[in-house]
Amino acid sequence: MASSLRVAWRNPTRRLEPDSAILPGMARKPRIAIVGAGKVGGTLAVSLRRAGYSIDAIVARPGGASLRHASRLARQVGSRAVTSGARIKADVIWLCVPDGEIASAAQSLALLIHQQPIIALHSSGLLSSDQLDALRRTGANVASVHPLMSFVPGSRPSLAGVPFAMEGDAAAVRMGKCIVKDLRGEPFLIRKKDKAAYHAWATFASPLLTALLATTERVAVAAGMQARIARGRMMPIVSQTVVNYATLGAPASFSGPFARGDVKTIRQHLQALRRVPATYEVYVASAKAALQFLPTKNRKAMAQVLKD
Length: 308
What we know:
Elements: E1 2-3, E2 32-35, H1 39-50, E3 55-60, H2 64-76, E4 81-83, E5 87-88, E6 92-95, H3 99-110, E7 119-122, H4 133-136, E8 141-147, E9 163-168, H5 170-182, E10 186-189, H6 195-205, H7 207-222, H8 227-248, H9 250-253, H10 257-260, H11 263-273, H12 279-293, H13 299-307
Parallel strand pairs: 1-5, 2-3, 2-6, 3-4, 6-7, 7-8, 9-10
Antiparallel strand pairs: 8-9
């Protein structure tokens, strides 16, 4: 992937937008190239276009599904799909590829970029901006900018109000903050050494929450319901629990047999769940977390019944 940086230098014969404080002489909204047309790249490209950004290119692997996805996305955002080695004219390159491909993609770009004042970002929640060291050595400013949001096929969430964790070179972080604010997101800084814990937090907040809901659904099936019907029936209580947590915090949202200290009920739950594979272990682990982090009564007796 080659990059030819387009910079709007001062020209007294034409009117430009206010200069950027990040890269002197560059128009306020830079041209952006998205590397990767997957779930994150697709959402970012559409959101950036709606926020008034010009998407120079959607970069994909040659041939196959990757290029087809890139072509479809490019049509949606008024851009073009290109493959590795194509000429792109961007001020910002945003890598939205799987974690294991970030460093190699940066290395490929670095072979074609020489001392140009570009900004390079990647969207990994786990990995730091050091994955872009190959570009940094060419003179690029780099950062990791991760949206704290779930991206799945068939859903393209709004980025308004979404927190974006970022760290890296000062100029790249400043650019990232400007872009995120234009997306109506909420940028915040994170230290490199905290990214693994940050990503674990994000994993608890979405994938493992989904796993808990899947476990809950399995228990409903054991109670004689169809899974599809169970999902619909449990949504009111799930939704209200999330609303309570958001508005009141965890302690004030906690209810049920653990909050009451009802050992007899918990023992009956455990007996029933022994017949449903895996759900027993999830219940016990969640119950132990409740005893540790939430207001419970009869704590000692409940801890003992979880050991039995």
